[in-house]
Design brief:
Largest sheet: 8 strands, mixed
Number of domains: 2
Helix content: 10-25%
Strand order of the largest sheet: 5-8-11-14-17-20-22-23
CATH superfamily of the largest domain: Hexapeptide repeat proteins
Shape: globular
CATH class of the largest domain: Mainly Beta
Oligomer: single chain
Order of helices and strands: EHEEHEHEEEEEEEEEEEEEEEEEEE
Strand content: 25-35%
Number of strands: 23
CATH topology of the largest domain: UDP N-Acetylglucosamine Acyltransferase, domain 1
CATH architecture of the largest domain: 3 Solenoid
Distance between the termini: 49 Å
Number of helices: 3
């Protein structure tokens, strides 16, 4: 019977998660990637390509009782949620991953497949959606809600009572001020300071942030 973590995505974020898992005393037993030209990100860990590769691994592995999954895709794309559902439908649990150097308030809520990385703070009653990454040194303040499939890049700050839609990218070092709404699939540029609501699909940059597309 297999026992350990499987990671979908064989690039830089897989390496980050592998180190987090090593610190926790867990091990990575398989990698998956949809790219036909993907290379194994972790020495000694086999790489399987696409849904067919996953099917073959799953048949060989047998019972899934000791298997957990993680999604190492930084892009804010619908495929992340498809992979989450694929894992779950095949008996692979996908718990949140929290770095031991992060602080998560006891009444915060973390969705399946979410990642909270080193030196990050998730404050009181904050919600982090399924398959959302809150990267190194980022902060999500009280009562803010992040949707599914988002990525809050290193050093970004989400102030209190902010609502963020699904598949939003908040760039490195960006700041979103309190009580704002960020529409789904929006992109907030690195270092931007968001002082007003951002419509769905918009790209905003600068201080204060201004819409530049689409």
């Amino acid at each position: 019977m297999a026992n350990g973590y499987v990671i979908w995505g064989s690039s830089g974020h897989a390496k980050v998660l592998a180190e987090l898992l090593r610190i926790r005393g867990d091990r990575v037993i398989a990698l998956f990637d949809d790219r036909s030209d993907a290379q194994p990100a972790l020495e000694g860990v086999p790489l399987y390509v696409g849904s067919e590769g996953f099917r073959r691994w799953h048949e060989q592995a047998g019972q899934m009782d000791g298997v957990r999954g993680a999604i190492a895709i930084g892009h804010c794309i619908p495929a992340k949620l498809d992979i989450l559902r694929r894992f779950q439908s095949h008996g692979v649990a996908v718990p949140p991953l929290i770095h031991p150097q992060a602080h998560v308030c006891g009444n915060a809520r973390l969705g399946a497949g979410s990642h909270v990385l080193a030196q990050t703070v998730i404050s009181a009653e904050a919600v982090v959606g399924d398959a959302t990454i809150v990267n190194h040194r980022a902060s999500v303040d009280h009562e803010s809600v992040l949707g599914a499939g988002c990525h809050v890049a290193p050093g970004a700050t989400i102030c209190g009572c902010v609502t963020v839609g699904d598949q939003v990218l908040v760039g490195a070092g960006a700041v979103v001020l309190s009580h704002l709404r960020i529409g789904e699939r929006a992109v907030i540029g690195a270092g931007a300071v968001v002082t007003r609501d951002v419509p769905a699909g918009a790209v905003v940059v600068g201080v204060p942030a201004r819409r530049v597309g689409p």
